[in-house]
Amino acid sequence: MHYTNSRDIQKANEHSIHILHVVGEMNMAGIETWLMYILRHIDRDRFQMDFLVNTAQPGAYDEEIRALGSKVILCSHPLRSWLHAPNFKRILHEYTAGLHCVFSNS
User: Fold this and answer.
1) What DSSP string describes 27-86?
2) Fewest beta carbons less than 10 Å away: which of 30, 70, 72, 86?
3) pLDDT score of 74
4) What is the largest CA-CA distance in the chain?
5) pTM given for the model
């Protein structure tokens, strides 16, 4: 399974609004299903939605997310805060160049 890491993150189209959703994983659950509904229907010329997940386990929606042009970014070690926090900070620092919004459900 391929996850986008910070080296793979490219700047969003400068004319789009870039949104990062932070979730545990993209499986078929309430908020994740709603986010997928939005992703399927959003104007992708105006909005770039990407997903930061806390598990290397493939999520049910990961392939569809990529097929729709969005990224799945892994931030590992969610149960080890001393490892997770620096990863999260590094990813946000590298990712925020074109970022407009961050939403978290985890």
Assistant:
1) -SSHHHHHHHHHHHHS-TTTEEEEEEES-SSPPTTHHHHHHTT--EEE---TT-HHHHHH
2) 30
3) 85
4) 38
5) 0.75
